[in-house]
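Subgroup meeting minutes
Present: P.N., E.W., G.H.
Scribe: E.W.

1. P.N. recapped why we're keeping a running log of single-chain structure predictions: easier to compare across weeks, and new members can see raw inputs and outputs side by side.
2. G.H. added today's entry (709 aa).
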Amino acid sequence: MPFWNQTPVLRFLPFFLLGILFGFYEFGSLSILVCCALTVMISCSAVLKRIQSGFSLIAVRSFSILSYCLIFLLAWIFTLLKTEKNYPFHFSHSKSSKYVVVLKQSPVDKGNTLRAEGEMIQLKSDSGWRVCEGKVLIYFKKNELKQALAYGDRLLFSTVPALVPGPLNPDQFDFRQWLSTHQVYHQVFLKQNEFVRISQHEASALVEWSINLRNKWVKVFHDNGIRDQEYAVLSALILGYDDEINQETMRAYAASGALHILSVSGMHLGIIYGALQVLLAFMNRNRFLRVFRAVLIILFLWFYALLTGLSPSVLRSAMMLTFIVTGQTLTRSTNTANTLGASMIALFLFFSPHLLMQAGFQLSYLAVGGILFLYKQIEDKAYFKSWLGRQIWTILSVSIAAQAATFPLSLFYFHQFPNYFLPSNLVVIPISTAVIFSGITLLIISFWTFLSLKIAWICSNLVFALNESVSIVEHLPYSLLSEIYLTLPLMILWYAAVIFASLYFIRVRKEYLFLFLTLLVALFAFGIQRAYEIQHQQRCIVYHIPKHTCIDLMYGESNIVLTDSFCLTNKNLLNMAAQGYRTRCGMKMELSTYLSIDKPDSCNYFSGALRIQNNKIVFVKRRISILYGNEPYANLTSNSKIIIVSANARCFREFLLYFPQCKKIILDGSNSKLNGTKWKEWCSMNHKEYYNTSENGAWILNLNSDLQL
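Output recorded in log:
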């Protein structure tokens, strides 16, 4: 039987997903869409009657097309209806003087602040108190918070939530977009005296119980002598608690291609499912026991999913395994591809269609899809007589299949590729499996102190071996291919190339090889074009970093960064703002030079194309002056047409005497709002262009505008 006849869900799934995409970006009017859906539904009924009265190929084709259109429209309508900000009682639709919110998580440490997600339940308008709904992100000042807040606390405050702002730097991580996939669109900053906790334990008792249980089990690891990053990794691997993992460990796992180990994923749930199948095998004797066994397995899978935070990969695995267990219990043959598609649709219906826009959800389903369609094909290409050889080849086959399906999307999101993912997974997967079993065993026998200490010692050493193995891989030469920039069209081309390569690998037909090679040539041509543009680019960028200054001067693959002393010693802050655009522009980290804007070196760079002296920049014959703080302006006199104002440099009356040819004033993020207002008024009075990065985002000067990246 043809594959598509066995997988009816996969036939209409693309139209369902396309409808969700249109709904997520809020294209179209709901009333018009409903009318269109009703029209298509009536047309479907008419065509179906025509088919029943007498077979017609045209009618059958028409019915198929109309069915796909109906699925597309229904998914579109469903997504709009499930978008919370469109609800009539959403808090953003009413003016209010007071709000009541329930915390949906315990506040998480974010440096100087604590952050938690809350659910609005009541607001006070002119007509009095009324019920409302909608999610909001709440920030608390960490050093001001006098009471420990937790999941289920109900707070009263009067500060009006504001829309989450978008990124002010090009290619910067779009936190607003990420929050929108979780249906969070507003945020509020609360000081200690701006809110009151009016009650506790007001949210889901089941969720609160699971959070308390997870905290209790995390404490079990600590109480049994597991410390430092072994404790952090074990808590993340078993229970999804990753708050203790430091950046160095996270970077090592990413560079080795084993980052998926740190998040509770389908692999974890699959291991638990396999163990439950073995442990409950005795319940296969009769139908009643089989049903009871299936209920136990499904309940435990969803309990574990709830315990670990309902991540996209766990949701996918739990839903898919639920379908598989149900099919096996009812003695129905299940097609795995069909089950995968059905689990996706079920997640959209029972949880949210916005899951589709989450990177974790996309990567999880792509990985399983790659394993489903490619794993057996790869494994069958080689056979090993020894048991160990077969196990090694199985792990390698799974890793290759998953990586083939996910690497274009990973490059698009994360701009890096772990070159040693095969040897890394060969070591990491067996060790992590042993860690999962030993960690769960430790939780089960934690009441028995003597034995639990022995198991904890084994578990700690296994995690130590796991951490050391990924650290060794990270420090191998060329372990990570980084700073790769992939546009959406190029990602689609890469996926097309992967699909045709896979088809040729499976069926060995010349057409697939020809299409694959054609796409490779096209990708190679785009790469040459991009390399040419990078080699000839000349740009000046003033990034927006609140309270700080960062000016990037790019010439080919090299760049000079003028920044303040704080950013020089805290590169993470600078990278958060600039790394995305640098990757887009093809900058090489080893060719970057950092200078202090307080006292920049007087020197020539890029073979004389750039000259810096006393806060005066001459870059490809463009003259730019920097007013920094309380620098004496008499020393900066120049004929610069562009003036960059930093560190609250004041606006003074004699400005035009020092800078007679000034045409444009650029204010960066190190200026206060008051200073920005004064400069704006001065520019308006003197007919000068005004640009403030805090309002308009990073300022970019492309000195060869005919070459666009």
